[in-house]
Design goal:
The complex is a heterodimer of chains A (147) and B (612). Chain A has a two-stranded antiparallel ribbon. A two-stranded antiparallel ribbon of chain A has the order 2-3. Chain A has helices spanning 26-38, 40-45, 53-74; strands at residues 75-78, 88-90, 112-114, 121-125. Chain A is an alpha+beta fold. Chain B is built from 12 helices and 31 strands. In chain B, a hairpin with a 3-residue loop joins strand 1 (10-16) and strand 2 (20-27). The radius of gyration of chain B is 26 Å and the shape is globular. The chains are: A alpha+beta (147), B alpha+beta (612). Chain A binds chain B through residues 1-7, 9-10, 12-16, 19, 33, 36, 39, 42-43, 45-46, 48, 51, 54-56, 58-59, 61-63, 128-134, 145, and chain B through 50, 52-54, 73-76, 78, 82-86, 120, 136, 138-139, 142, 177, 180-181, 184, 188, 288, 296, 315, 317, 319-320, 323-327, 329, 331, 562, 564-565, 603-605.
Chain lengths: 147, 612
């Protein structure tokens, strides 16, 4: 009944220097995340011409779910114009990065028109910090199995 | 925020689960309206979800990964509060463990309750390759508990964890050693004010918390069956509604075995069905693809079992191996009929209440490991619980059918598996059939919510209840307990000194209370091994603490004796002491011997009903 056995708690280690973040790595990092969580790069780099639609469809269903989950985890995506496509919408501004006028566009951009595409805006980006020694260019490590 | 630390500001409920852990908390307010909602909240637990990525999730998967040099890039397993952490706990541990099981510690809690091994020795990971340093189940539990403490301290730095009141839940079936080891792990993890609470009770408190009018839903004489099916374990408990001083109160009257059988077994069985169908078509899958199939079958099962779902099947895909994804994709479907068949024929067959589970395997040579249940039929385990274990309880308040079957009036479900209405319905149908055979009306389900977090929420609520709010479940000790005292007599060759029995725990003593044994002092042998003998009686209900029984003959039953060497520095001596008895919330009797100079020694054992 003498149950007291104390394992020595490991002493706290000094924290290493905070990792230096290179913002240019963000694109590669996102690609790496999409590969890790949904194998998007495998899919895009594969030659799918020879496979039946049924076979492609089965793979895409799974990939689509996982890819969307991964995006939702790190980015918050919302439409630039929150309207109904095919109806009139006011342009939120004249910035060509925000709104692209198409069709019979007059000399002076008008205040609005028929919404054809709502656009996408990443209203929030929440990518984890990369460790200093992490090479973002490695999108997926090679895998070796020991049998 | 400048409250003195002696007065805890929060109560924290910790569900240390076999596959998932959770932390809920509630603020204690001196002026609180006892009828106001308790306002129990969940703490998001920051954990590594991928290398280099920490996220808060409401559950901490109870997995520990012991990385080797090549497992993670340097600096990617740091935690916000510890940059040099050398192990991984939580979601990432679970994920990486699928790829490399040799470094994964899982089900540490089941090992903690496995009496067939030395639970403090470094056993885990059980199948670790040579060169991986193993740790004990206690150490693994410590790391989960420590992670929860650190998560709290990071979130609420003004209210340090060690100054709060903490309730840690354990399965009702945990033996005294497993309870003590859980406490030990919590102490090592830096927990201070700790109380253990049983999981089914916590689940019931969670229901009470959500239903302030519970006193109208249950009545005197009702018997509530708590069915808890988690990822890897199943537990049954009975709680009786009794009267105490004119008010309803709750007594836990029977506890079943800890059955190593749960939702993971169901998912694995479904994966087996799908793999068989693939094999029939000539498609073989390897072990790693089987893992993926297992995980996808769980997802498909959850989709199909969602309330309102009428789909006949859900696609299950195994993506191609290597960098070719579409080419190697294997497509299959998990049919609704598969789930129904696996549940009906395997896990929840409609059996008679007299059908007992198949016995444990008796193969002469067995692989060491966890004592998994030999019979997967949860309904047969339930039959055994209600027919043998609960019916054997001495408590007079257990409602029974004519055949002796313990007959619950209400049922409360807990655990992730029971979130599926189909699973609940099958258990209800079987139980109702048994009750109908006894000529009794069907059982009433007590609808719980959020079955994944109920235990931690209920534990926090119980912490408030101890302040006088809410209601406590009592578990009165159903026996009187005695310690053997050697008489002071001149020695006679051939005749051992006669033994007297000192009453230390009176009949019906409530758990969570203590009693001082009044009057005289006794001599305690310290500094050398000495034998302590304990006796018990279910019939002598009127002995008071301190009563000394002589010539008890066969009236008292002796428990297995304990040999203990109390530490007393270098010397061995006989110290005059007085005794105090404490029965903890979890049914452990602690007998404290207090010397005049302030030194104290503790003897303890489980006073819970031993179940068959």
């Amino acid at each position: 009944m003498n149950l007291a056995r104390r394992g020595a708690a490991p002493a706290a280690k000094p924290a290493p220097a905070p990792p230096a973040v290179r913002t240019s790595d963000g694109a590669l990092q996102l690609l790496g995340i999409l590969q890790r969580d949904s194998r998007l790069v495998d899919f895009l780099m594969e030659d799918i011409a020879g496979y039946s639609d049924d076979q492609v469809g089965a793979a895409v269903r799974e990939l689509h779910d996982q890819c969307r989950d991964a995006l939702a985890r790190y980015l918050k995506l919302e439409p630039v114009i929150d309207g109904v496509e095919g109806t009139y919408a006011k342009a939120p501004g004249k910035d060509p990065a925000l709104v692209k006028f198409i069709g019979n566009v007059p000399a002076q951009p008008p205040a609005g028109g028929t919404l054809r595409h709502k656009g996408w805006r990443a209203s929030q980006v929440d990518l984890p910090a990369l460790a200093a020694k992490q090479d973002a260019a490695i999108i997926a490590p090679a895998e070796i199995e020991i049998e | 925020m400048s409250k003195p630390t002696s007065e805890a500001r929060y109560v924290i409920g910790i569900d240390l689960g076999t596959t998932n852990s959770a932390l809920a908390f509630a603020e204690r307010r001196a002026d609180a309206d006892p009828f106001a909602p308790a306002n129990v909240q969940l703490l998001p637990i920051p954990q590594l979800t991928n290398p280099g990525e920490v996220r808060g999730e409401s559950l901490l998967p109870s997995f520990l990964y012991l990385p080797g040099a090549g497992d993670f890039p340097a600096g990617t397993i740091a935690l916000p509060w510890d940059g040099g952490r050398e192990w991984v706990v939580g979601r990432l541990a679970q994920k990486r463990g699928v790829e490399n099981a040799g470094r994964l510690v899982s089900s540490a809690k089941s090992w903690l309750s496995h009496s067939g091994v030395d639970r403090t020795s470094a056993l885990l990971p059980f199948r670790a390759p040579d060169g991986v340093e193993k740790i004990s189940p206690v150490e693994a539990s410590r790391r989960y508990l420590e992670h929860l403490r650190e998560a709290w301290d990071a979130a609420l730095p003004d209210a340090p964890f060690s100054a709060q009141r903490v309730l840690v839940t354990v399965p009702a079936s945990f033996d005294a050693v497993a309870r003590e080891l859980t406490l030990e792990a919590a102490r090592q993890a830096g927990y201070r004010d700790i109380t253990l609470l049983e999981e089914p009770q916590a689940a019931f408190y969670a229901w009470v918390e959500r239903h302030p009018g519970w006193r109208e839903r249950v009545q005197l004489g009702d018997l509530i069956l708590v069915v808890d099916i988690g990822g890897g374990t199943t537990d049954f408990t009975l709680i009786a509604v009794t009267e105490q001083g004119g008010e309803l109160s709750l007594n836990r009257v029977a506890v079943g075995d800890h059955i190593l059988l749960g939702g993971d077994n169901i998912d694995l069985a479904l994966a087996g069905v799908v793999a068989q169908r693939l094999a029939a078509k000539g498609t073989r899958i390897d072990a790693r693809q089987h893992q993926q199939l297992w995980a996808n079958c769980r997802v498909a099962k959850e989709h199909l079992l969602e309330p309102g779902s009428t789909a006949a099947g859900h696609p299950v895909t195994i993506l191609g191996k290597g960098s070719g994804l579409v080419g190697g994709t294997i497509k299959a479907t998990l049919e609704r009929a598969d789930i129904e068949r696996v549940l009906t024929e395997g896990f929840l067959p409609e059996v008679a209440s007299g059908e007992m589970p198949a016995g444990q395997r008796r193969v002469g040579v067995q692989e060491l490991g966890l004592p998994y249940a030999a019979d997967p039929a949860i309904t047969r385990h339930l039959a055994r619980f209600l027919r043998q274990q609960a019916a054997g309880a001495e408590h007079g308040t257990v409602r029974r059918g004519p055949s002796g079957l313990a007959a619950p009036t209400h049922i409360l479900f807990n655990g992730g598996v029971l979130q599926a209405p189909l699973v609940r319905a099958r258990i209800l149908a079987t139980l109702d059939a048994w009750l109908a055979a006894e000529g009794l009306p069907p059982v009433k389900p007590l609808e719980g919510e959020d079955l994944m977090h109920a235990v931690s929420r209920g534990a926090a609520y119980y912490g408030l209840a101890r302040d006088g709010r809410g209601v406590r479940i009592r578990g009165g000790v159903p026996r009187t307990y005695y310690i053997g005292v050697e008489s002071a007599m001149p020695s006679i060759p051939g005749f051992p000194a006669p033994l007297k029995a000192l009453t230390v725990v009176p009949f019906g003593m409530e758990e969570g209370t203590e009693v001082r044994i009044p009057g005289r002092e006794f001599g305690l042998v310290v500094g050398q091994p000495a034998e302590f003998r304990f006796f018990t009686s279910a019939d002598r209900k009127n002995d008071r603490p301190g009563d000394l029984i002589e010539d008890f003959g066969g009236e008292l039953a002796e428990l297995s004796p304990m040999e203990v060497a109390f530490e007393a520095g270098e010397t061995s001596e006989v110290v005059p002491v007085s005794f105090e008895g404490v029965v903890t919330e979890t049914g452990v009797l602690q007998l404290w011997a207090a010397a005049r100079d302030g030194r104290r020694w503790k003897l303890e054992f489980n006073v819970r009903e031993k179940v068959a």
